[in-house]
Design goal:
The protein has a domain of 135 residues: Nuclear Transport Factor 2, Chain: A (Roll), CATH 3.10.450.50. Helix content is 29%, strand content 35%. The strands form two sheets. Strands 3, 4, 5, 6, 7, 8 and 9 form a seven-stranded mixed beta sheet that branches. Strands 1-2 form a two-stranded parallel sheet.
């Protein structure tokens, strides 16, 4: 059967795509950095102009959610970065001033406990997976990680302790960004995290960020 309206499925014409290069100048047909935004807007406008106010609000909410989750992930990473660099200030910066971390209370307590990280010759934490849920200005994160702690045993032999870890976090949005307000273990709330499994093996530590004086 012949289509009574053969033009109904034909997409609207779009501007011809022209390849361009990023440069600081605008000569010889090259595109400046400022023109990139204009180029993108010109191509998106035919679609964006057809969105209803509800569509725009829904899109803005989705973008905000993605942004919040990315910022929360950065907070979680910053905590481990501080631990692996033996930097108590960086560790504390991931938490609210009055945060609860297991039995620790507030930045001063967290910094004091984290100075004990210097007992290890080297540390490394690997992010495994995380379930992040955002509800307005608060959020929760249930995170799995693997930690590698290298140090000498009583006999002076260099050993590596490898552990499977789980952290349960409550977070809040502040004027300075997201911070952890409470961190606990799921099965061991007072310890600050759960250890699912662990094993030790002989190893060699080649670098300690504080003792070797490297930035």
């Amino acid at each position: 059967m012949e289509d009574p309206d053969p033009g109904r499925n034909v997409p609207e014409p779009v501007a011809e795509h022209r390849p361009w290069r990023v440069t600081r100048g605008t000569t010889d047909g090259r595109v400046s950095l400022g023109a990139i935004g204009t180029h993108i807007c010109e191509r998106l406008w035919p679609v964006a102009s057809k969105l209803s106010s509800n569509d725009v609000e829904a899109l803005a909410a989705e973008v905000q959610l993605l942004k919040d989750k990315a910022e929360i992930r950065e907070v979680l990473d910053r905590y481990w970065f501080g631990e692996d660099r033996c930097d108590p200030d960086t560790v504390a910066s991931a938490f609210a001033e009055d945060a609860d971390y297991g039995t620790m209370r507030g930045h001063d307590d967290i910094r004091h406990v984290m100075t004990g990280l210097d007992a290890y010759d080297s540390m490394q934490h690997c992010f495994a997976s995380s379930k992040i849920e955002v509800d307005g200005d608060t959020a929760t994160a249930d995170t799995m990680a693997v930690g590698f702690n290298v140090g000498k045993d009583d006999a002076g032999e260099q050993r590596c302790l490898v552990r499977g870890l789980r952290y349960i976090d409550e977070l809040a949005r502040t004027d300075d960004g997201w911070v952890i307000t409470r961190r606990r273990g799921h099965d061991d709330p007072e310890h600050g995290h759960d250890t699912f499994w662990q094993f030790e093996g002989v190893t060699t530590a080649v670098w300690h960020p504080k003792r070797r004086g490297r930035s």
